[in-house]
Amino acid sequence: MKPVEIERNVYWVGALDWNVRDFHGYTTNKGTTYNAYLVVDEKIALFDTVKEPFKSDLIQKIGQVVGSRQVDYIIVNHVEPDHSSSLPAIMEIIKPKKILCTPMGKNKLLEHYHREDWPYEEVKHGQMISLGHKTVKFIEARMLHWPDAMFSYLVEDRLLISSDAFGQHWCTSERFDDEVDPSELMKHATKYFANILLLYSPLVKKLIGTITQLGLEINMIAPDHGLIWRGSPSKIVQAYDTWSDQKPKQKALIIYDTMWHSTEKMAYAIGQGLTEEKISVQLLDLKSNHRSDIMTEVLEAGALILGSPTLNNGMLPSMADMLHYMRGLRPQNKIGAAFGSYGWSGEAVSLINQEMEEMKIKIVDPGMKIKHFPTQKDLETCEELGRKIGNALNEKA
Ligand code: FEO
User: Fold this and answer.
1) What DSSP letter does each residue of 115-136 carry, written as one string?
2) What is the pTM of this model?
């Protein structure tokens, strides 16, 4: 794909990765993009680079835009290797006069590439530089989602180059939000937030406040992954504002795994009870649903009901994996309960309860375990548990 002029003299020069399917534990079912942007003015500035295997794409695109002119600055908004691992090769070829980054960005570049000789220049929050007709303002975005992160705002164009924030892991031939199905776009943006930014919700809130305080008018948001928000940049900012509140909906997830279908039967019965209380329910078998897709549903769920039979005095490995992943992302404002079948020792329910307590999920019932196959009465008790959780969720609302 050739460079795309996204604004006058501002070019997308990134790379399309159609086939990546795993992003350290997150399934990228439709690939991703590594977006880099080139601003051509009296000075030329490149904003971020691409993942190393795509360095030739980037080099070719830069050449197509600038010809024999020199790139003056490389602005590193984020050092994670999907945006910087082609930097050593790019540095050799284009030899910019400066690498502009945050102080933490300089540390991270040194820790990754061990090049003391590169021409670093640290920039501060709020600092501006002129490229000629265009001015760049730097906005610190610490811990969104790395300590080095910053945004770059093109003042005259009202264009926010937003690093990882507002991105999506979705590879398309289109470059803009107004060229694709908006509902699919929001699905990818939701998954991205739930799996990458959820634990930083308070900082997302703060950053949106900073953007408002600075009075930045935004015509376009150009993230480092996925589509550029041209048609409706306010839509994604509003969505981040809402998601970072982590306000629960009347929605329950029954997340479970099963050995001989007993825990599964319990899941269905609990679901029946919840439905009777008018709660929207999703049953998510861990064998059929990837942890990162489940996490997307967790974002707006009010209740998490977690089921596992006992295996070797513990929970099934799939549930341990899910809980470990979820704990790292720190979902807030949930209620929960545990359930599962057992044969003789039956530790899974209490172990899941411990995990929920550590995540500050409010446990509304000590949980339910049944021995081997459930009786009709057991299933009726599961339905009752579902109604109890549904009532608790309704009261919370
Ligand atoms: Fe897309 Fe945090 O790198």
Assistant:
1) -TTS-EEE--TT-EEE-SS-EE
2) 0.97
CA 82 to centroid of ligand 1, rounded, Å:
6
In the DSSP assignment, the letter for residue 25 is T
CATH of 4-245, one of 3.90.180.10, 3.40.50.300, 3.60.15.10, 3.10.310.10: 3.60.15.10
How far apart are the C-alpha atoms of 340 and 269, rounded to whole Å?
12
Bridge partner list, 277: none
Decide whether any atom of ligand 1 lies within 6 Å of the 251 Cβ.
no
Cα–Cα distance, 3 to 16 (Å, whole number)? 12
Q: Which residues are catalytic?
A: 24, 78, 80, 82, 145, 164, 192, 225
pLDDT in tens, 230-284: 999 999 999 999 999 999 999 999 999 999 999 999 999 999 999 999 999 999 9
Q: 251-391: what CATH class?
A: alpha beta
Distance CA(59)–CA(73), nearest Å, equals: 15
Question: Is 83 near ligand 1, meaning CB less than 6 Å away?
Answer: yes
Q: Is the shortest distance between the CB of 82 and ligand 1 below 6 Å?
A: yes
Q: Return the axis-axis angle of helices 87-94 and 55-66, rounded to nearest 10°.
A: 30
